[in-house]
Specification:
By secondary structure, this protein is of the alpha/beta class. The chain is 39% helix and 16% strand. The strands form 2 sheets. Strands 1-2-3-4-5-6-7-8 form an 8-stranded parallel barrel, surrounded by 4 helices. The longest helix is centred in the middle third of the chain and has 17 residues.
Length: 279
């Protein structure tokens, strides 16, 4: 089973230097950004740069964060399809499954990764992503910065650096919405790329809760993210044992594995662990 990307590294699409550095990183997926990190005056040049990238040969998946729906820049971004080696599109400021359907009508079956909590209205639409017919949706992630601006917040964190209630709600709804839709849940960015211990703590918390990947804004964040979302050897061994036990007794509802009682939910989690390990 193919492994979902653990690290999704944003790179401004108008910077040849940063693109070259990102291509040399160990990221599982690169997100060439045509939205927030590219000034309006530079967007046309950024699209030209992406059109002229050399053909992809192995390495990370290539995704493009296009501009929001119903904007002129969005229409121009879609002209890249078929002219660059793109694995999928990242849709910012998505508000519901209807946005996926609208984009699907223009792009067909190309995989989509939706950033689903960047507006106030988006918090009310997280369940709707499961209802998209023949959905190309592959992943959902959340964003705190645009949301805090939309809500008029002075900050999205408290004095101890922890997300406040509106943003922990957005994070939780993204996780639940992605699980309901059957797509990859991806944790949001950790903005201080110099704070590696903080990044590791946040990534491990996300992996514990059920996220299987995380957005990155700097190549230095890729290694810690990949490590946090990679099962440990002990976790892999335990998962293999659970899967093997149920394979040997497929009619069993509950089994004992290494002295611990396990049931079907444990089997599902074990299968997911092995999928994350690329097995």
């Amino acid at each position: 089973m193919s492994r979902q990307p653990r690290s999704w590294l944003f790179v401004p699409a108008d910077s040849e230097k940063k693109i070259a550095r990102a291509l040399e990183s160990e990221a599982d997926a690169l997100i060439f950004d045509l939205e927030d990190s590219v000034a309006l005056a530079n967007k046309a040049a950024a699209r030209d740069l992406l059109r002229n990238l050399p053909a992809r040969s192995g390495g990370p998946q290539w995704w493009v964060r296009i501009n929001p729906l119903r904007t002129e820049e969005h229409r121009l971004d879609l002209e890249l399809l078929g002219k660059a080696d793109i694995h999928g599109l990242v849709l910012p400021k998505a508000e519901s499954g209807a946005d996926i359907t609208e984009l699907q009508h223009r792009t067909g079956s190309i995989p989509l990764h939706a950033i689903v909590t960047e507006t106030a209205a988006s918090l009310f639409g997280l369940l709707s992503y499961r209802d998209v017919k023949d959905s190309p949706l592959a992943a959902m992630s959340w964003g705190a910065e645009d949301l805090s601006a939309a809500l008029g917040a002075a900050s999205n964190k408290d004095g101890k650096g922890r997300y406040t209630a509106p943003y922990t709600l957005a994070r939780t709804l993204t996780l639940a919405g992605a699980a309901a839709a059957g797509v990859q849940p991806v944790d949001g960015v950790f903005a201080d790329f110099r704070d590696e211990p903080g990044l590791i703590d946040e990534a491990l918390d996300a992996a514990r809760d059920g996220f299987t990947g995380k957005l990155a804004i700097h190549p230095a964040q890729v290694g810690p993210i990949n490590h946090a979302f990679s099962p440990t050897p002990d976790q892999i061994a335990q998962a293999r044992a659970i899967v093997a036990a149920f394979a040997a007794e497929p009619s069993a509802g509950v089994l004992s594995v290494d002295g611990r009682m396990v049931d079907k939910p444990h089997l599902i989690q074990a299968q997911r662990t092995l999928a994350r390990a690329g097995e």
